[in-house]
Specification:
Residues 172-195 have a biased composition (Basic and acidic residues). Residues 25-52 form a coiled coil. Helices cover 38% and strands 21% of the residues. It contains 5 helices and 7 strands; from the N terminus they run αααβββββββαα. A hairpin with a 6-residue loop joins strand 1 and strand 2 (82-90).
């Protein structure tokens, strides 16, 4: 601080600290009283809650649990080619397409069946968070996952060919020691004119 500047002027402190502390204590006391009153109101409200009202909350939870699971897997071309996971937003029995929202991407480079070209949504990675129209036969509910994938794999699986059996079945396999006996080696030398 300088020659003519006091700490009260520099820090903007009131000249009478006692007066300042009294004002601050009054503000804190008012705030504490208000909080205590609010706490009393909440205690009275909680004590007056009947058992019937608390049972209604349980009913709401049960209704929520009974709602169908709208999560689904989205496929392209055939049901086993899953490219994303989403939620069914709008479903009607008469439409061939279902409106879904993509939530998780599995194969981002796959093309969307009905692209939104005006919004540049052509690939699955571009459609994250958007509501899109998807063919009904390519939307697999998570509850029906096992059935649909099993059917699709059977349809689109390539048949596995069995290994061909050898034509000459009476051939015996070679032993571990495949060297011919010594007698045969000597006879081969005589035939060649050596030894």
């Amino acid at each position: 601080m300088g020659k003519f500047i006091t700490p009260q002027q520099y820090f903007y402190l009131p000249k009478n600290v006692k007066y300042y502390l009294e004002i601050e204590n009054e503000r804190v006391d008012k705030r504490i009283k208000k909080l205590e009153d609010d706490l009393e109101k909440l205690k009275r409200f909680v004590l007056n809650v009947s058992k019937a009202a608390s049972c209604q909350i349980g009913g709401v939870i049960e209704d929520f649990e009974k709602q169908p699971d709208n999560s689904c897997l989205l496929a392209v071309e055939f049901a086993a080619n899953v490219v994303a996971k989403g939620t069914i937003m709008k479903y009607s029995a008469s439409d061939e397409n279902i409106e879904v929202m993509i939530e998780t991407i599995l194969k981002g480079e796959a093309l969307i069946p009905f692209p939104l070209e005006e919004e540049f949504i052509v690939k699955v990675k571009d459609g994250l968070g958007y509501i899109l129209s998807w063919p009904r036969h390519l939307v697999i509910r998570c509850s029906n996952l096992g059935k649909v994938v099993a059917k699709s794999v059977k349809k689109h699986a390539t048949p596995v060919k069995k290994a061909a059996t050898p034509v000459n079945e009476d051939v015996t396999p070679l032993k571990e020691d495949a060297t011919p006996p010594k007698e045969e080696i000597g006879s081969n030398k005589k035939e060649n004119g050596t030894g």
